[in-house]
What we know:
The chain is an alpha+beta fold. The chain has twelve helices and seven strands. The protein has helices at 8-74, 78-105, 109-137, 141-218, 222-233, 251-337, 342-376, 390-400, 402-405, 426-444, 478-481, 501-512, and strands spanning 386-389, 411-416, 421-424, 452-459, 464-471, 516-522, 526-534. The strands form two sheets. Strands 2-4-5-7-6 form a five-stranded mixed β-sheet, covered by helices on one side. Strands 1-3 form a two-stranded antiparallel ribbon. β6 (516-522) and β7 (526-534) form a beta hairpin. α3 (109-137) runs antiparallel to α4 and α5 packs parallel to α6. The radius of gyration is 51 Å and the shape is flat. It starts with 7 loop residues before the first helix and ends in a 6-residue tail after the last strand.
Amino acid sequence: MHPPHLKLGSRLALSYGVVIALLVGVALAGLVALAELSHTTDDAFKDKYPKTILVNKLINNLETIARAMRNTLFLNDEQQVQEQLQEINATNIQMASALATLKKNVTDVQSVEIIRDIEIVHSAYIVNQEDFIKLVTNNRMGEAKNLLLVDLHPYQIQYFHFLNMLNRHQSELMDKASSDTSKTFLVAKRLMLILTVLTVVLSIFVTIYISRSLLKQLGGEPSYAAAVANKIALGDLSSKIQIKVEDHSSLLYVMERMRESLLERSEALESSNMELEAMVDTLKQTQEDLVLSQKMAALGSLVAGIAHELNTPLGNGLMAASTLADMTQSMCDDVKSGIVKRSTLEIYFARALEGQEMLIRNLNRASELVRSFKQVAADPETSQLTSFILGDVVQEAMLNLQPLLNNTDFAVVIDVSPDIVLESYPGPLAQVLTNLLSNALIHGLENRLKGKLLVSAGRISGQLIELVIADDGVGIEPKNLTRIFDPFFTTKLGHGASGLGLHIVHNIVHTVLQGKIKVSSELGVGTKFVLTLPERVFVS
């Protein structure tokens, strides 16, 4: 039934190609028939039907003009008469446009002759109509009435006669187009039915042919081949596959060869697995070493940062102490020599006070930095776990910030539900609130006369609280949003900022309070920190 040199894929492609070609032929034949049907329908509805509409429009316009001319003879109000005359002029313009369009689109001989007669009547009708309008405008109603009855009325009758004749002719053309459409539809229907039956018969033949080819290619029934494939997929490589002599080119023969190959590979894989297990153990040890190295690198970075931050205040303090020591030694020498003057003492005391102030200021700065460094490694063991009302902690934090709020017009809005009770660490939480709020006042609302601070809190689930601290300040640049929690990162370097505030906040929230913190900001709109905290801190 098929050439022996063709493969199964080629035979399938060839068989289905014939079916597809026939389907394409049916589709093309249907398209041709439908195109003919569409052409016939378009001839009826795009050519003849619009012409019929134009004729009806001319009839309606002619009736409108006739009615308006009659009305002008019976109306006494001058304004109403003018309105009727304006309607006559407007309708004349519409009639001229419709008649020109109709003349342009009419092609058959009879319609062309009727249009020519209509144009003649139309010209005479327009001339007499203009005379009628002049008589009415000059209030010569008797002459206008006589003109309407004697001249215009016969033209109107003749005009209606030609229009009705053209309308009947267009209706006859519409009937003929409808008949042609019906005949074309029947031909297309009969052709597509014949081709469809032929396609179904050929499809049945191809299906039988393909089924026989597949059975021979499989080497037996598909159920047996599927059962063998399932056993191999499940790892059962011990069952032998029954293969007939003529099946050495079938799928069953290929599966038997594959089963034998899998048996060989399974033995090799067992040996490889043992080697991989040893490699995994080595990788785990390497991973632990890398984690330790990263921790040491982070510690080194922290130590370097501490040294860098402490270097300035300690260096300034050392310089102030050295200067005081030199001044004191010089003063001692002057006292021993007995040449101390009053002016020299005054200079000494003034410089001593300046050096003392500088020394104290830098030592306080160094003390603050050391205290901040201690807070970086926030430890829950140094804090007290207790139950407290969240609103009370918020109020205490706001009291701490009162000096910064004095002499400002900043609005502070606190929206914290009074029934939120946490079992956590109130001290570290108050520190977080103070840092975030002072950060908003110092950075977000800097150089602003007015602004708004918002602190709100509410439950978002049975065990979680959402605490929001927001301002409507300058916002944070997008490039800095991913770095604000990094240690020693600040945009006010050299202006009293250490870059540890938000890093401390991040550590406290994640380690002590066992929560999460997110930040969002938009330049010129403001910044919002969202803290997600558990109602009860887990203590191991």
